[in-house]
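To fix ideas, we quote verbatim a fold written out as tokens:
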Amino acid sequence: MSTPIIELGRHKFVCGLFWQSLSRPRELAREAADLARKIDCDLAVLRREYSTAQAGFAKSGSGPRQALYSLAAAVASRLARDGAHYDGENQPVHNWLAAFRLPDGNWAYFAVRDANFLPNGDFAGTREEVFERLHGDYGLGGWNLVIGDAELEHYGFHNFSERSIEELLGDPDGGRIKVSKAWLLRPTAPRIPPRMLAAGAAACALLVLGAAFGWRQYQLRQQAQRMAVQAAQAAQAAQAAQAEQARLALLPSFKPAPKPAPHPWIHSAAPSSVARACVAGLSQLAPGGWALVEYTCGAPEQRFTWNRQGSTVDMLLAQVPQAQVDIGGDTATLGRPFAPGAGADDVLLPRQQLVAGIQSRLQLMNLGLHLALKAPPPLPPGGNKDGTMAPDWHTYTYAIGPVGMSPLEVAAILDMPGIRLERLRYRAGIWSLEGVIYAK
């Protein structure tokens, strides 16, 4: 996701951070740094509100560093500090949507459920992009508050609060925006100053030049020695080859040893890679006013299912021409190819160690894990015709759900040797995950 820079007053803010929940309260910074390395980011901002902790990640690029603040963290911080007036009283707000016009003409959008930013719930875009996402998320229900500029009022949102971004972040007295250090994006790893890098490069260059001449002389001497050694080795190798041929001629014929069974897990990517690709593909929430009923993702395809919800077929096809509408005209589907790529040839763990560890971590998150042992196919009489051995591992199928949090968090737990994620399913704001576990 891009992270555009937005100037508000004298300060620069960014939208489009990748938000991830944190689970180690006593070492949040270290956990955020570990996650940043995994997703190739070098900037992060931490937010701790309502007993939850999240980190928003961004990538700085190759340019000079500058002070940048997270606009999402600023809005969430103000709402957590001041609360919001809805249902007849001022109270904390945990589920809210916000859309604000920005000085450059674009709009900022934020979506928070259970005090956590949703996937893709922090971005800036055109008015059409933001309003389409706002209406799509609002249709999921369960929001305490919708907050934003005055032109949102005529849409009739429940518990709408009219406020601009300047009013929300400005001081009550003068309206001037006073930033907090808690909103500042900070490097997740120390950065070596350019001057120090240049000095080190110059010193290395001098050392290389000084050693080049001596190294060349050494190479010439070594080359002469190698030529003599190679000649002697060639003669010895010829004699050894003749002796080996004579020995093999005297040996009886033998049947080659069977080969190990091929590893099926090398054809599937790690769970976190599959989950990131699936979450990134969840973009068509409410095209043409049609409500998303179900989204499934797993090789070989991503599939969307929408219901009409008072719209028309023409409005859907205007935005998704490839959608397939059923004969009744009330349900439509769309399939897209999905290939997350190959995986690594993991060294498998003992099944007791692997399964017990996954069960414990999911139980701490109040998530159910359903396992089923998959019996291996019976060997044909006389063994496999291709000369391979029977598999020396156990295969389990698993299902996790319902999951009310980001599937990226669950996939990070599943990132262990031998675990593969085959399918994600999204329905009414709830995720479920299915896959395979290979273990010794």
Remarks:
- The chain has a mean pLDDT of 86.
- Residues 5-187 form one domain.
